[in-house]
Amino acid sequence: MKYLWLMLLASLSFFSHAAPKAELWPYWNQSNETNSQVIDHSEWQRVLDHNLIQQGSNTLFDYAHINPKDRQVLLHYINTLTKLDPRQFNKSEQFAYWVNLYNAATVQLILENYPTTSITKLGGLFSFGPWDQEILTINDHELSLNDIEHRILRPIWQDKRIHYAVNCASLGCPNLSTNAFTSKNTLALLKQAELNFIESDKGVKFNNGKLILSSIYDWYAVDFGGEGGVLNYLSQFKPEIKQTNKKPSYQYNWALNEK
User: Fold this and answer.
1) What is each CA distance from 41 to 1, 80, 137, in whole angstroms?
2) Which domain does 51 fall in, by range?
3) Assigned domain for 258 exists
4) In 78-173, which ranges are E strands?
5) For residue 196, is it within any domain?
6) Which of 113, 128, 173, 219 could form a disulfide linkage to 168, CB 3.0–4.6 angstroms apart?
7) Residue among 4, 11, 251 nearest 128 (CA)
């Protein structure tokens, strides 16, 4: 038993110091830029409208009180998206498709395992969360949440703001967007999510002159140009960062983002 506990602690420690690299899955790096068809995300919007609550700087999901109809709508939405071939759409539609699918699937995972105190409790004894579980099938390909984020979104779009768009159902994470992503609103939502997170204490804060950053900026520093790139980037929003000469510390709250 002592050995098993040490193994579990080791797996948790590993995640705190490492994160999946962006490694392209070439199959999904295709698009039809002549296709002007729009994917309908209204069902996801309905679920968001009925179940998100703003509390301070956090947007919380009311997992405990979601009604049966909204559960049905959520499942139907996910099933509808998985029956599409995203490669047949243009890149703007694809981005919204993958972000919304990631977030909807994450909410569904929590609902399937609720009550739980943290998404990190899901996934089995030696798993830190469910991110490597293959939970979706698209074009006969099984995908995990990590596949969507690290093998599709990050390597194809190479936009650091992706980290503000995908939601891990935790208080330390950038908030789940109150608006479903679409090809028309993506840029505006990314810009707003970026600003909201950096302006929140869970993104960037000072404590007695000490700079404390979200662990996102540690785990995914490579997407921001390394630690120096992180500080240069954040100083565009918070110029006072330039005045500190101490290395930042990092924090993250894995508690469930529930009402």
Assistant:
1) 47, 10, 19
2) 39-200
3) no
4) 134-138, 141-144
5) yes
6) 173
7) 11
